[in-house]
Amino acid sequence: MSATRGGTGRRIVLWRHGQTSWNLERRFQGSTDIELTETGVAQARRAARLLAALQPDAIVASDLKRAAATAGELAALTGHDVAHDAALRETYAGEWQGLTHDEIVARYGEQYAAWKRGEPVRRGGGELETEVADRAAPVVLEHADKLPENGTLVVVSHGGTIRTTIGRLLGLESRHWESLGGLSNCCWSVLGEGARGWRLMEHNAGTLPEPVLGDDD
């Protein structure tokens, strides 16, 4: 690996989609296909102008509408095609999907508490976080491996999927993944390639601090 540009080697930018109506309602989206709000579209356009300055070499995105539309704003500025991959979708959470945060706590309190403690939990009968990482991280690495020297990949996905992917690429034990704070809508994290593997260079970047709405969606 050569690191002539600032000593960083290749970069992976993991970008969360813009706002949806379910984010505002703190309603768990999971794999439900919810579109961006007008605010979400505006967020994506603003963030795309910033990310375009990084001169990304490739864009890959979840095929769910909220992520695909977000990625489309960056593609319009860079001229790159977007590779859509269902493996980058948000965690499937079964019976939790469509419920608000308060409803989940009221109906699945023990399950919710166990998840927050870092225990492996099939929320709502859905996927384990490790299973999400099993499907998403290889896709990210596959596209990163195609980058030129010191190239940049933008991955447009979802809060929970991004967190599990970062945890996997950093080599953290899954019970520690929750220690990675959530991403606000249309914010991103940056992984840089170092001599010992991937390193977290930035986290939840893109704006002044904002509340994280509907982290796992």
From TrEMBL:
<dbReference type="InterPro" id="IPR001345">
    <property type="entry name" value="PG/BPGM_mutase_AS"/>
</dbReference>
<dbReference type="Pfam" id="PF00300">
    <property type="entry name" value="His_Phos_1"/>
</dbReference>
<protein>
    <submittedName>
        <fullName>Histidine phosphatase family protein</fullName>
        <ecNumber>3.1.3.-</ecNumber>
    </submittedName>
</protein>
<keyword id="KW-0378">Hydrolase</keyword>
<dbReference type="InterPro" id="IPR029033">
    <property type="entry name" value="His_PPase_superfam"/>
</dbReference>
<dbReference type="InterPro" id="IPR050275">
    <property type="entry name" value="PGM_Phosphatase"/>
</dbReference>
<dbReference type="InterPro" id="IPR013078">
    <property type="entry name" value="His_Pase_superF_clade-1"/>
</dbReference>
<dbReference type="GO" id="GO:0016787">
    <property type="term" value="F:hydrolase activity"/>
</dbReference>
